[in-house]
Amino acid sequence: MKTDPNIRIETFFEKDFNTLISWVKDEKELIQFAGPIFSFPLTKEQLSKYLSDSKRHAFKIIHSDTNTTIGHCEAYKTDELNSRLCRILIGDKNFRGKGYGTILTKILTEWSFDNLNTKSVDLNVYDFNTSAIKSYENVGFKITSINETTTQVNNENWKSYKMTVTREKFNEKTRQKTTNS
C-alpha cells in the first residue's frame, strides 16, 4: 500500500485488535481518538462491528524501518463526492512528536483521493489538539466550520472543528512542499 520512507498503511484486520485496544488506556484517550463511536473499554466486539461498515477503510500504520505497527487510521466514504479521515492515532508513544502525523495525513488523504475518487476530504479535530491541527494544515486542510455540538468528557465540554481540503488544494500543497524540499 502507500509508502513513505518511514511509514506505510496496511489494511486493519481482526488480528490487529489487541494492539489497538492496548493503546487506549482510558475513556478520555478513546474519545479523543475515536469520538463517540466506541465506549470504554474498547472491545473486540466493538471493533468487529466497526469493520462491518463497507464505507469504512481502516488501516494500521506500520513503521517501515522496524516493520512495527505504530498506529491506526481510517478513511470513510461519506457520499459520492466526499470522504472523511477519522480515528487517527499514533498509538505507540515512542513515535509521537516525530512528524508521523503529517506524513500519515498526506498518505491517507492521497489514498482517499485515489481510491475513493472524491473531490474533497474532511476531518473533525478537537480544538485543543493544536499539534494535530498544525499537522493537518501542513497538508492543506483548512478549518471550515466549528461544530455546534460539544462532546462531554468527565466534566469538560470539548468543541471540535471540521477541516477540509479539496483535491486541487491538496495537489497544490503537495507540489509546493516537493518544490521547496
From TrEMBL:
Domain N-acetyltransferase, residue spans: 7-168
Classification via InterPro entries: Acyl_CoA_acyltransferase (IPR016181), GNAT_dom (IPR000182)
Top-rank taxon: Bacteria
Record-level Gene Ontology MF annotations: acyltransferase activity, transferring groups other than amino-acyl groups
The protein's name in its UniProt record: N-acetyltransferase domain-containing protein
Biological source species: Kaistella jeonii
